[in-house]
Structure formats: structure tokens, C-alpha cells
From TrEMBL:
This is Transaminase. It comes from Microtetraspora glauca. NCBIfam families: PRK07046.1 (NF005453). The keyword Chaperone does not apply. Its cofactor is pyridoxal 5'-phosphate. It comes from the Bacteria. SUPFAM superfamilies: PLP-dependent transferases (SSF53383). Keywords: Pyridoxal phosphate. Pfam families: Aminotran_3 (PF00202). Belongs to the class-III pyridoxal-phosphate-dependent aminotransferase family.
């Protein structure tokens, strides 16, 4: 359907326009190359459709401004880290009060905010006992250690093309012939991940049962809907089947709600009435201040506490000096209490529905074999129709040139999508006009492509 030569010409034109439009970002990137590994503060910032990243000047709510003075409708929102909006006022105030007013971030003393956050996360996600981290990666690492400790089993099972952070146990996929293999590009794996893990496709209960029947899986670590290879929704009955099988085979179920938090105040767990043993979360929960955590069911907490010989206080492999620090929990409290409220999710979801509808209209107008999928406050377009039903299918539907074209075209006209995929996320400050601006530009990009 797509004329590849025409696409290449358009992409080339947009990249040149991007370079012309952003001289200060280009110069800043050039200077950084002398001092930063890869020229960026973190190597993933080289994931840019245009050849160099935009440099941040300011961000507030659903808007960011770059170093060259352009203002953007930000539908990327830090790939979910800013789902509360950039610098939401309640979080700013709480952080200023904690750090500047009363003082203290890293003091090795608990604060009462943490108890409030644990109670609120328990209300939302259904698991009562919480412990905090600064990233979702760490929350997952520590949760799977606890799962291995109490089950006495060595392996973790994940879904193909999942992402749960830079966690050794999750970097494997189902290969073309159904074999389980290390993910391409896996950097310095301590052992082949098939030693520590099993992997199956999402929405595939027979394969899940086959793998669990080995009796060596401590926990299934999963997102209730995949979000890192495009959004892949669970088919009817799938999540019930996962819960039933994990119980039958004595395997714990960990729901990673870091991205699926978009589904509602309690993520998919709350929205769909799920009953996991452990919930992990990170990113948005602190309104932009590094925060995360894992929540344990009463039964899991009791099993951990009933074990002797686990060092949960010092060097046993669970914890971090800065985890649960006063600043981080103050940010979580303010964000949950005043920003990512139940009402905010209602409004964000309505906007994502508007986004989804508008994208579908453009796809239909040009009869493109594309699809768009919504998960609460987030939505994403994919270059396949029907929408992929598992990670392997979604990976196969990828089209990097088309991704790059749309990303640069949108950026050149003041709209940012998350660089890793075609995902758009709504925050409490996003407006209908922001969504409509995306449609206007998206429709123009598609019309040029189709023309
Ligand atoms: C579902 C999920 N879990 C965990 C993580 C890791 O988050 P972080 O990089 O903030 O540790 C991510 C990051 O994208 C994620 O999407």
C-alpha cells in the first residue's frame, strides 16, 4: 500500500526540515558528544527519528518547549513518567515543602507520607503491603527475588516482546520456530536468559500451561495488556485463564502496572478486577520524581515473613539506599492525592477516546491496513489490521521508516509522540485542542503519504 520511494523522499525532507528548525539542539548535541557516552545523558536518548534529540528548555502540564523555543503538545509525556503532566503544581509544592521547607530527602528515617501512599496504593490495586523503589526496574527485580525465595523455584516466566525494565530475567523472546531465545542485542547477559526464564506469547494459554507444567516457575511477570511493543489487549478470558493456571501450578502472578496504570486509578488490576499476588509500579506514580514500588498480597507478605534466613535489611539483594526516601514518597503522596485522581482518569480516558476516534477516521478515509488501540488514557496506532494479538505479531508489524516519518513530521509541527512507538498519552492538563492538533497534523502526514 505504501510507496516506499515516496516515503523515503518524505522522510528525507522532514529530517532536513528538523535540522534547519533546531540549530540550538543540534549544536548542544554536537558539544555533548565530547563528554557524554553516545552524546546523550542516557544512551536510549539516541532513539530519535530525526538524527539528534531535541533539548529541553521548559515543561509544564501537557506542553514542552525546546532549546530553539518551539512549543509542543506533548503526547509522549516521558513515555509515561509524566502521565501526571509535567511539574504538576501539587507535586511541586509537596517536593518544595519536603526538600526546601522542612528539609530532608535522604535521611534513613521513614516519613508518615509512606504509610499514606501504601494505604492508597492498596485501595487502588488491591494488594495491602507496599515497599518502595525509585524505578519500576528495581520494583520488578526485588519482586521476582521475593517470588523465588518463597516458592523455592528458579525461573520467571514472561511474555514475548514484553519490557519490564533492564531486568536480566525478562530479555528473551519466542523465536520464529517457537524456540525460546535471548532478545536480540541483549547486552552482557550474565547467563543465557533461558537458564533463568521461560517465555510464551501473550494471549496463548496452551503455551503458558505447557511451560508452567515444568513446575519450576516462581512467578509470571506480566503486563495485563502489553504496552511496549504497541498496545496488545487481552482476549476475553485470557487473564482469567492466566490466574487459574498460575494458581493450579503454584506460580505467583505479578502484574507490572507501570504503563497499564493508564487504564485507571488502579491500572488494569483495578479496572478489570484482577487478583494478582504482587503488583509493581513506577514512572508516573511520583509525578516525575523518581519513585516506584511493589505491593504484596497478605498471603505473600506472610510467606516472606515466615521464612528464616532472608536478609531483607542489609545485603540480601532487595533494596536500595535511596529507595523510599522522604522526597520520593512526598511526591507520590501529592501525585496520588491531588493529580492522578479518580476524576482525572475519567477525563484523560475521554480524551484518549477522542484521540482514538480521530485516528480511526483518518485510517478509514485512506483505507489503510492500520489499527488503533486504546488502553484508558493511552492510545497507539499500528501498521496492521486487525490489531496484533501478541508480541510476535506486533513486532512483525513494525515499520521503522513509517514510524520515523510520522514522528518527525509531527515534531516539525509541534506534536511529540513517545520515541519508542506510536503511543499518545493523555495527562490531566491535556486538552481537546491538543488532541485535535495531533489529528490535523496526522491527517496531513497521511494525506501526503497516500498522495
Ligand atoms: C511495563 C514496564 N515496567 C518497567 C519498566 C521500567 O521502568 P524504569 O525504566 O523506569 O525502571 C518499564 C519501562 O518502560 C515498563 O514499560
Amino acid at each position: 500500500m505504501i510507496d516506499r520511494a515516496h516515503l523515503a523522499d518524505l522522510l528525507d525532507r522532514e529530517r532536513r526540515a528538523f535540522r534547519d528548525r533546531n540549530p540550538r539542539s543540534a549544536a548542544a548535541y554536537e558539544q555533548a558528544r565530547a563528554h557524554l557516552f553516545g552524546g546523550v545523558p542516557m544512551t536510549w536518548m539516541n532513539k530519535t527519528a530525526a538524527g539528534f534529540p531535541l533539548y529541553l528548555a521548559e515543561a509544564r502540564g501537557a506542553r514542552v518547549t525546546d532549546l530553539d523555543g518551539h512549543s509542543y503538545v506533548d503526547l509522549c509525556l516521558g513515555d509515561t513518567g509524566a502521565m501526571a503532566g509535567h511539574s504538576p503544581q501539587a507535586t511541586v509544592d509537596a517536593v518544595a515543602d519536603r526538600f526546601g521547607g522542612r528539609g530532608g530527602a535522604t535521611v534513613m528515617m521513614p516519613t508518615e507520607d509512606a504509610t499514606w501512599v501504601g494505604a492508597e496504593l492498596g485501595r487502588r490495586f488491591g494488594v495491602p503491603y507496599w515497599s518502595f523503589s525509585l524505578t519500576a526496574t528495581d520494583a520488578n527485580r526485588w519482586a521476582i527475588r521475593l517470588a523465588r525465595a518463597i516458592t523455592g523455584r528458579p525461573k520467571i516466566l514472561v511474555n514475548s516482546y514484553c519490557y519490564h525494565g533492564s531486568v536480566d530475567e525478562v530479555l528473551l523472546v519466542v523465536g520464529p520456530d517457537g524456540e525460546q531465545v535471548s532478545r536480540e542485542g541483549n547486552v552482557g547477559a550474565p547467563v543465557d536468559p533461558t537458564v533463568t526464564s521461560r517465555v510464551v506469547e501473550f494471549n496463548d494459554l496452551p503455551s503458558l500451561e505447557r511451560e508452567l507444567a515444568h513446575g519450576d516457575v516462581a512467578a509470571v511477570l506480566m503486563e495485563p495488556a502489553l504496552t511496549n511493543i504497541g498496545i496488545v489487549l487481552p482476549e476475553p478470558g485470557y487473564l482469567d485463564g492466566v490466574r487459574e493456571l498460575t494458581r493450579r501450578y503454584g506460580t505467583l502472578l505479578i502484574n507490572d502496572e507501570t504503563h497499564t496504570f493508564s487504564a485507571g486509578p488502579g491500572g488494569c488490576t483495578g479496572a478489570w478486577g484482577l487478583d494478582p499476588d504482587i503488583v509493581t509500579i513506577g514512572k508516573a506514580v511520583g509525578g516525575g520524581i523518581p519513585s516506584g514500588g511493589y505491593g504484596l498480597s497478605a498471603e505473600v507478605a506472610a510467606r516472606v515473613e515466615g521464612m528464616s534466613g532472608l536478609d531483607l535489611v542489609d545485603m540480601g539483594g532487595v533494596g536500595g539506599t535511596l529507595a523510599g526516601n522522604a522526597l520520593s514518597v512526598a511526591a507520590m503522596r501529592a501525585t496520588l492525592e491531588h493529580v492522578l485522581t479518580d476524576d482525572a482518569f475519567t477525563a484523560m480516558t475521554e480524551l484518549a477516546t477522542r484521540f482514538t476516534k480521530g485516528v480511526r477516521e483518518v485510517i478509514d478515509e485512506h483505507a489503510l491496513p492500520w489499527s488503533v488501540t486504546q488502553l484508558g488514557a493511552r492510545a497507539e496506532y499500528r501498521f496492521s489490521d486487525p490489531a496484533p494479538r501478541d508480541g510476535g505479531e506486533s513486532n512483525a508489524a513494525g515499520d521503522p521508516d513509517l514510524d520515523d516519518y510520522l514522528h518527525v513530521y509531527l515534531a516539525n509541527r509541534g506534536v511529540l509522540l513517545t520515541p519508542f512507538h506510536n503511543m499518545a498519552l493523555m495527562c490531566p492538563a491535556t486538552t481537546e485542542a491538543d488532541v485535535d492538533r495531533h489529528h490535523e497534523v496526522f491527517a496531513a502526514a497521511v494525506a501526503e503519504l497516500a498522495g
